[in-house]
Each structure stands twice: as C-alpha cells, then as structure tokens.
C-alpha cells in the first residue's frame, strides 16, 4: 500500500474559528481539516500547517501537508474535500509532494496582508476581512517608515513580549503600503518568518506613523530598542490574511516518489 | 413638539435575516431598525421600507422613512444608529424629508444586482454575496437576451406564480450583464417596480440563455406567454442586492418643513 504525501492549499474565513491549531472542543481549522480527512479516508489523518494563524485571522493560501494511503487521484482531492467542508473553509489545490516535503520546514517565505477600512462607515460586504479604523492616515509617511523594516533585523520590538522563541532575527523582503479607492489601506509584508503577533504589531506601528504620532525615521530606533513597548499597539485579527506561502520548487524531485 | 419625517438609507448583509418585513420572533431588518429606533428615541417608532427584500437578500441602498419628535440633529442620526445596530446592518445616510415623502410610494425606480460566481471554487471572501454557479456561461448571448427585457412588458412569466398583484406590467429601464475578472458575472436591472421574485427569475432565465438552453430571441415569446413555467428557475437569494432606490428631487420642497 503506497503512502502518498499531499500538499494542500486552503483558504478560510477565520471569523468563526478559534485559530488554526487544534484545541479540544473548539472549532479550529486544523481540527476541521483532520475531521474531514478522517471522514473521507477512513484513516486517522494528522495535518501539519505552514504556520498557525490566530483566532479571527484569515487565509487565502495557507498550506498543510498530510499522508494517506487512500488512492484518490490527486486532481479529485479538492472536490472531495470541498464537498465535505463547511463553506468558510476551502481547499484550493492539492498536489502530490515527495516524502521530505514539510509544510512548515520547507517554506521559504510567507506573504501576509493587513487591511484597514478608513471609511467613516465600514464597507459592509468586506467587514469580516478589514479592521475598521475611521481616521485619516498619511500613506506617504507609512511608506517611508515601511522601508526601514525591510531587511534582516531583530524584531523583538515588533513581536509579542510573551513570544518564547530565542532567535528573533527575521528577514522582511517586502513591506508595502497599497491604497485602494474605497477607503482601504493594505499593508503587505513578505518575509522568511514571522514572530508571534508580528504583522499585527507592524500594522499598529505603521498606523501610528500614519497618524504622525511616530516619525518614519523613528523606526530604526524602535527596532534597535529590542523592547516591545517602543512600538505601536497590536492591531485586531480581523484585518489579517495569510495570502501565500512560498516553497522552493520540488517538482525536480518528483523521481523520489516511491511508485 | 415638532414631528420630523426622516429618510434613512440602510445597507445590510441579509444572510442572517429572515427578510426585511417584521415577523414575530424572527430576526428581520424592519424589526431590528424599529427596535433600535425605539431604544434610541424612547418613542414607539414604525419604519416603512421602499420594498421588502426576501430572506437572504442583501441591500446597499434600501430606503426607509419614519417619524420622530426627538430633536437629534439630522447629521448625527447615522452615528447614533450605527452605535446601536449590529454589524450586519448599517445606516449610510439620514435626511430630513417633507411630510408627504413616502419611502415606497415616492420611489421612481430601483436598481438591483444579481451576482454569479462562475469559478470552480467560489471566492471565499465574497461567498455571502454571490451565488456559486460553476458553469461556463456565454455573456454575449445573455446580453442579447437582456435587451428584449428592457421596456414596458407584462412580466407574469418572470414573476412568482403566487404573486397576488393584478397588474403585472412593469418597465425595465436597464438590464445589463457585466463581467468581472474574477469569475463574477453581474446582472444589473433598473426598473420602476419589481414583482415577487422577478429579479431572481430573470437571473435564472438569463443563466439558461448563457448555457444555450434558451435562445436570446426566445425572450419575447416567453414574455408574451404570460406563464411562469415558460421561464427559467428562481435563483437563490444570496446573489441578490438591492443597490439603490431613486426618488424625484424633493429638496425643492424643503420650504414645506413645519420647522
């Protein structure tokens, strides 16, 4: 019996989930995926995600891997799963990957987007995916500040104080501020890894810059302080989306498939 | 004590409402507005809408009127109401209108939009406001059929058989098919009045045209049959939005305000 390793790209509206990670008696993304996979395959399936998203955070392109010996053709997996999943959790794509692929460990970068609705009255149809912040923000100042964040830095000041990891050096490849006609401001970040609450604290800090409470050129000092209290506050989860997870191409390794 | 008549433009996500019209023990838009107005004013307030939307149907610009003697300045009404309303029901605008204004009777036209998501997997973030219909539709054929609907016709074939009105002659000013990059197809109609389920049956019929089950030039025959069974099926409520209600300008009558 061939065991296949599958990479599954999933989207979810995080509003009604207690985050990605499985927790007893809570509605979680991992729990829901495992429950459906177990129902579909008749096997006890464990899912590993590229990263845990917090309660209320959304995803367009979260990635998970799992193993199964059920011979469902790869191209039919998305349909099978989507028929079993609730409407707020979707499978976008399923690909077969070599045994050494790991959703978290093989990831090279992640792209997140944080969206603010700066309109006086929030856009009703997008309210679940935007943080309502009805203030006038200066995007030019925010863009200047964002440039200081790109590169390799110790992000201690911009991550939750209770984060337990030792090494807080991460690389941001991009940090862009995008304006949209309809009172929306997107903060898009791409990086090789993100610390706990890091994107939400970057959002809160750039908003303080947009309000002119913090000057763009204060950012290097905030980073070098290595002190959470030097930065802005943690913005709420509803505006945050995990857009994409990037991997090195493993198609070249396809010969490794055991059959 | 001056009684003021106010026109209020409201938006709602209809997903969790049993329609516009008040019903005992049900969550309805009218019921929610009246409950909030009564709480805010301390008066027993009745609200009259431009039209009733069915359970699950949304609105960007539904219009209601009501009377109150509470002297809240007109420009502050939206804030007062939005602070009291749930997140899926919003007040966009409040204007003072002359006593003879009536949300339904003074309306000249209404604009509705029906949106189909034709992607294989529905757009997760817009799923509450689109009907998922993963088929390939020919928009050119739909546009040709739509042209036959514009004008003054007896719309018996395109309204629910159980509709109780006598006169089923209505005028459609526009019936447009708009394509959007992301697998969305919008059917936009503007008319002087709409019969029960009329937009949802127009949507179902135009989809049959898009699938080439009905030819564009069959539309005149469908209309003249005056028989519900000649047309396509009633499409589900989630794709339907009441976008706007048009009135003749009454600003000229402002001198009529009793002060």
From TrEMBL, chains A, B:
GO terms for molecular function: RNA binding; tRNA pseudouridine(38-40) synthase activity. Gene3D superfamilies: Pseudouridine synthase I, catalytic domain, C-terminal subdomain, Pseudouridine synthase I, catalytic domain, N-terminal subdomain. Keywords: Isomerase, tRNA processing. The keyword Ribosomal protein does not apply. It catalyses: uridine(38/39/40) in tRNA = pseudouridine(38/39/40) in tRNA. It comes from the Bacteria. Its EC number is 5.4.99.12. Substrate binds at residue 112. It is an enzyme of class 5 (isomerase). The keyword Disulfide bond does not apply. Formation of pseudouridine at positions 38, 39 and 40 in the anticodon stem and loop of transfer RNAs. NCBIfam families: hisT_truA. Homodimer. Belongs to the tRNA pseudouridine synthase TruA family. This is tRNA pseudouridine synthase A.
């Amino acid at each position: 019996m061939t065991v296949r390793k599958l990479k599954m790209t999933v989207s979810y509206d995080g509003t009604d989930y207690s985050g990605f990670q499985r927790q007893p008696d809570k509605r979680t993304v991992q729990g829901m995926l495992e429950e459906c996979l177990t129902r579909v395959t008749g096997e006890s399936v464990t899912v590993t995600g590229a990263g845990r998203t917090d309660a209320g955070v959304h995803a367009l392109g979260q990635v998970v891997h799992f193993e199964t010996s059920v011979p469902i053709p790869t191209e039919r997996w998305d349909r099978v799963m989507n028929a079993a999943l609730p409407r707020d959790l979707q499978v976008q794509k399923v690909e077969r990957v070599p045994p050494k692929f790991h959703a978290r460990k093989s990831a090279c970068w992640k792209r997140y987007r944080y969206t603010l609705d700066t309109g006086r009255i929030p856009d009703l149809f997008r309210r679940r995916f935007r943080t309502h912040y009805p203030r006038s923000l200066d995007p030019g100042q925010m863009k200047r500040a964002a440039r200081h964040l790109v590169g390799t830095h110790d992000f201690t000041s911009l991550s939750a104080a209770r984060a337990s990891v030792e090494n807080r050096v991460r690389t941001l490849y991009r940090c862009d501020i995008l304006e949209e006609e309809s009172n929306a401001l997107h903060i898009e970040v791409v990086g090789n890894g993100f610390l706990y609450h890091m994107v939400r604290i970057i959002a809160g800090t750039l908003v303080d810059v947009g309000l002119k409470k913090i000057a763009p050129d204060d950012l290097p000092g905030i980073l070098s302080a290595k002190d959470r209290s030097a930065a802005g506050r943690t913005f709420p989860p509803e505006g945050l989306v995990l857009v994409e997870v990037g991997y090195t191409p493993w198609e070249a390794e396809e010969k490794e498939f055991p059959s």
